[in-house]
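User: I've been trying to design a sequence by hand for this structure and keep getting stuck. Would you show me what you'd pick, starting by listing the structure so we're on the same page?

Assistant: Good idea, let's start from the same input. This is the structure you sent:
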């Protein structure tokens, strides 16, 4: 979900992709969902981030999975819980590192 993993993956992008800039806004769920496929194309084409570290395969897979699932915002089932996990893994919301160095498990 966006809340579960995608927001954290996009966090470094927000330095440039935020309101008031002449670029897609990736700082919100609505903006990230709207930019989804175009952003993925830029990331996979190694055009984003310019001059910065390239995305890890596992993180690209997380973004693809999120988009394929119609970009869900959260795991919230209306019970006041967001579905976010906290654990001792050292990664966001209970996700674990995969062999490619990306996160998995909290899409």
């Amino acid at each position: 979900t966006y809340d579960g993993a995608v927001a954290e993956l996009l966090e470094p992008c927000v330095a440039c992709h935020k309101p008031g800039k002449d670029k897609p806004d990736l700082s919100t769920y609505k903006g990230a969902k709207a930019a989804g496929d175009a952003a993925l194309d830029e990331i996979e084409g190694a055009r984003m981030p310019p001059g910065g570290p390239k995305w890890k395969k596992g993180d690209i897979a997380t973004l693809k999975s999120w988009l394929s699932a119609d970009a869900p915002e959260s795991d919230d089932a209306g019970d006041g819980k967001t579905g976010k996990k906290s654990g001792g893994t050292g990664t966001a919301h209970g996700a674990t590192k995969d062999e490619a160095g990306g996160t998995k498990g909290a899409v």
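That's my pick for every position. To get oriented when you compare it with your attempt: Confidence is low (pLDDT under 50) at residues 78-99. The longest strand covers residues 96-97.
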